[in-house]
């Protein structure tokens, strides 16, 4: 049968349990604004009844309550979805931001862009057609041509500057990835050890989840959970973290440790017990940067180089067909390095008398060739197509980013509903635990009064 003091123990277990409930609710409230904090939930269990001897019967009605566990309110599938969508958003944000920078630098349409400079350049040839012998008109042609070359140089420098920024950022992000991978492996080890000795690992798990999310955002990393609870992380299908071991991600070729280009395609490798090449394309920030540096920006620069090459060659050919003020055949009007036309375009002559405006030798008042030079080539249309194509790409990426941002926000809202702290709910839990604690204390008082009556107010032994 139950002992007289069993109710005291029942009340004691209730006090202890409700104190833990107060602690859990208080901790949730305290961390309501903590980024990455996962709400804790207290799970109780009825205390197991006493085991009595054979042929005996336990006539009690419970031995109180105990703490079964304090759970983190996580959904592994939802966590995985959040990491996947965040990786996609980081990729598109990185790409969109860089393309917007380049698009702003192109400045089309605008008074300082290449299109405006090209229009002014053609206008100078038209003015020279009307006054082929005028020194001012000839100098204006050279000045407008130099302005056109400068506008092209500005655009090239803008693209090159963005490439340099992306390379340097790539080096920095790779370093951050390696730091996060090492910390995650350390947390794997700490959590495993803490689980063995029964310590609470909730905070460590929050930190590990945050690192897994960071790796997804930066490298498109995929995290899987082992049967023993440790995380494995892969980048491009190659192990970066395996249990308690962390590998090192490195830029194998394409970018030097100082952020300079080495002239080779950008490749990656992970060293975890030996170097392993990482297949591309990748996700996350480094995936976006890799795509920008390997495809998008080089493609635009190549297109601009082709426009400049075709334009300069056409103008030079037409200029060579005319005659200068002294009656000599015209030479090259533009000069450039065939390996880098847009960045090196320059006006080949500085003397206005050498401008081959005439279409016949000795025709000092003839502006026939100047008229042809004013319309030579298809640079206007070619450049417009190049810029329009780039602008369409910028718009497409921005739309994708907006759509991905909306999807990610929706998934994050689901995660917050599952794992985030709801202050209204925690307040209810807090009040409930407080009243339950008061009730348990009242039970303890009632039992104490009963025992006092039993001990001090019954019987005459000892009087």
UniProtKB/TrEMBL annotation:
Q: Name one Pfam family in it.
A: FlgK_D1
Q: Name one GO biological process term.
A: bacterial-type flagellum assembly
Q: Name one GO cellular component term.
A: extracellular region
The GO terms this record gives for MF are: structural molecule activity
- Matches recorded under InterPro entries: Flag_bb_rod_N, Flg_bb/hook_C_dom, FlgK, FlgK_helical
Annotated ranges, domain Flagellar hook-associated protein FlgK helical: 99-334
Flagellar basal-body/hook protein C-terminal domain mapped to chain residues: 418-456
Coiled-coil intervals: 170-197
The stretch of residues making up the signal peptide is: none
Name its cellular compartments: Bacterial flagellum; Secreted
Establish whether keyword S-adenosyl-L-methionine is in the entry. no
Record-stated family: Belongs to the flagella basal body rod proteins family.
Protein name, per record: Flagellar hook-associated protein 1
Traced from the root, the source organism's taxonomic lineage reads: Bacteria, Bacillati, Actinomycetota, Actinomycetes, Propionibacteriales
